[in-house]
Amino acid sequence: MLHLTAWRRRVPSWVRNIWREVVAFGLVGAVAFVVETASFNFLIFGSPDHGGPLGSTPVLASAIATLLAMVVSWLGNRYWTYRDRKGAVDRREVAWFIAVNLAGLAVTAFPVYVAHEVFELSSPLSDNAASLVGWAAATLMRFAAYRTLVFTAYREGSLDVPAATDRRRTIFRATRPDDLLWPCFLAVVAAICGWAVSVAFHPGFLSPDSLTQLAQARGEQPVTDWHPPVLALLWRTLIDITGALSAMAALQTAVLWGTLWVLAVVLWRRTGSRPLSLLMLGFGLAPHVLTLTGVVWKDVHMAYALLAVCGIALVARELPEGRERARWGLLVLGMLFLTYAMLVRKNGLPAVVPIFLLLMFALWPRPGRRRWLVAAGSLLAIAAVGSLGVSAAAHPVAVRQYAQIPLDDLVHVLTPEQVRSAATKAGATPEFTDDLVATARTCQRKDIVWDAYFACYPHKPGDQAVVGSHFEADQADVLLKMWTQQMPHHATGYVEYRSRTFARLLFQGNLQYLGGDSAVMPKDIRVNKTLDAAMKSYVMGFNRDFPWLFQGWSWLVVSLVLALRRRWTGPWSRELRLLGASGVLYIATYLPTAPQANYRYVYWPAIAGTLGILLAVSGAIVARRTAHAAQDTGSTAAVEAPVSGPFTADPTAPHPVGSGPRLNVTTG
After folding, report:
1. Could you give the 3-state DSSP secondary structure of residue 47?
2. What is the pLDDT of residue 645?
3. Rounded to whole angstroms, how far apart are CA atoms 548 and 229?
4. How crowded is residue 530: how many other Cβ atoms within 10 Å of its Cβ?
5. CB neighbourhood size of 308 (10 A)
6. SS3 of residue 224 by DSSP
7. Confidence check: pLDDT of 144 > 60
């Protein structure tokens, strides 16, 4: 007995309390289950002689039984399991309780749905296993949500806002037991959402570009530099390790949801708002983000790599003073993602530069000349080594894709006769000259405004069979020479043409959803048609009602506002401006190069703009709560100890989680 008492004294109080909560939560759940089962059977079957009052309406009987069980669960948990947290019943508590239980019903049913619809399992063993998995997941979710979201009245009276500008606390250091519970709950939610998205897009939807890269990854075609060799090389490595082509889509989904979890934890630590942290996770379920999550595309990889750097930067802001080794480690990790973003998207450099600045200022508010030189030199060195390493490993065939841009300009700015004259002057062969003239005439006849190489150029049968889309070296040289000779003399036509194509990119976005029923999907790749149809209905429904979500002009406006506003309230003013600058610069790269009106070209600005909006809202909440806390504390101090001088809030002073900002009392 003495040993038991000594052991209990050594065990932290929160461990003993949480085990008490677990036992009480389990007993309440068992009682609620009995109530639901008994009431349902009574309403359906009643007594053996008379039957149940709702025997003909089992759905209504089930709904009533579920409501009774929810009432029992609420009463038992509120007045027994969490009796130390009692307070006045408010609408927030009831709303959260209902929402958590509805989410629990969905979590319970989801594994059964997946087992039937995705894996086509219908045996009693599989049904019971899926039900057990769903029940266990729902139980864990309810327990975590009850103690962190629903029954928290004892914390609502105080301003539960962590230090808005305290840079000395790491987001992963727990100052009390509850500090770990909510991040763990967010991790569970992120893992479930990421898994669900991965299942819905399994094994990964393919565009014509990604289909070519899959063939290169499988060794069916030679690797070329038309599409990023690094993506084909990474995909090949994943297939060699896992044996599944779905590994690439699973990887990009994991990067997205892992980053969103990090951002959600940072947001919660900064604002103390659980709904805002959940909203950050909801970022990944937004239709304009979700639509390309499962599509293996270089634009998606670049966007998620840059988003990962943003997550690393916001974590770096929370590092305590000193910790130089950790800062340099985060810098190297961020530069690896930045290098991948540059390698996977040829025009990604303008978007990378502001994100690199964002990372540097997050690590060191005043980096100094030496750190700037070391960091910039390291980034260039890593990028050079990465490029050389990819070239050495993949041996990409040069296809001179850059010549597609002058081809578009020439055949759309010049007349067919001018094209012939310019080609002859530039030294083109008669055959190539005829092809260029035919391209110009076809585009004029069909009113095709861009992408002339694929839409108008007269490809010979078999000329792409081995290498794929490509220009010969002499053809690319001729096109560049024609462009430099002719465009200065047709500057007005060039500006008009590029303005027209850029306007189409901004206001006429297409390909909002690339589903599994795409014509380019290989026949041997099975896609769940039910989930694909549901996903398409969700995305295209938003596209119908909110088309601006998928159009470049809206994200250009958001990026401009983020970049040009001189001062944002809250702790992320500099980050917001750099996010906006990244989006603006990336969209600007398509002014002289836009080949079509594809939503993927503004995917990164859409993600950066959405993140910027969330951070701006969160920053405003931080500033408002800090100001209110300062006013309340100032009023209390004035009553208790009046002084002759003003109260000056010092929001930069470190203070513990859950407390208001410190106030310096200045006396006259």
Report:
1. strand
2. 34
3. 33
4. 13
5. 24
6. strand
7. yes
The set of residues, in sequence order, having a beta carbon less than 8 Å from that of 549 and lying 6+ positions away, is 287, 288, 542, 543, 606
Helix spans in 546-602 (H): 552-564, 573-588
Task: Report the DSSP beta bridge partners of residue 401.
Answer: none
Q: 355, 338 in Cβ contact below 8 A?
A: yes
Cα dist from 411 to 100, 160, 415, 450, whole Å: 60, 63, 7, 9
d(CA 602, CA 462): 34
Of the two residues 454 and 145, the one the predictor is more confident about is 454
Query: Given this model, what pLDDT does residue 480 score?
Result: 95
Task: Quickly tell me which residue has 């938003």 as its tokens.
Answer: 542
Helix (H) or strand (E) holding 625: helix 603-640
**pLDDT on residue 157:** 38
The contacts of residue 473 (CB under 8 Å, 6+ apart) are: 400
Q: What average pLDDT does the structure give for the chain?
A: 81
Model pLDDT for residues 607-666, shown as the tens digit of each residue: 999 999 999 999 888 888 777 777 766 655 544 444 333 323 334 333 333 333 333 333
CA distances from 157 to 87, 126, 406 (A): 10, 47, 65
Write down the pLDDT at residue 342.
95
For residues 279, 280, 286, 288, the Cα torsion angle rounded to the nearest 10 degrees is 140
Instruction: Say how far apart CA 455 and CA 310 lie, in whole Å.
Output: 38
Burial of 423 (0-12, 13-18, 19+ CB in 10 A): buried
Residue 114's H or E segment, with its range, is helix 91-117
Give 500's contacts (C-beta < 8 A, 6+ positions apart): 449
Whether 31 contacts 77, CB under 8 Å: no
Alpha helices in 414-568 (DSSP H): 416-425, 430-446, 452-455, 473-486, 491-507, 529-545, 552-564
Distance CA 527, CA 198 (A): 12
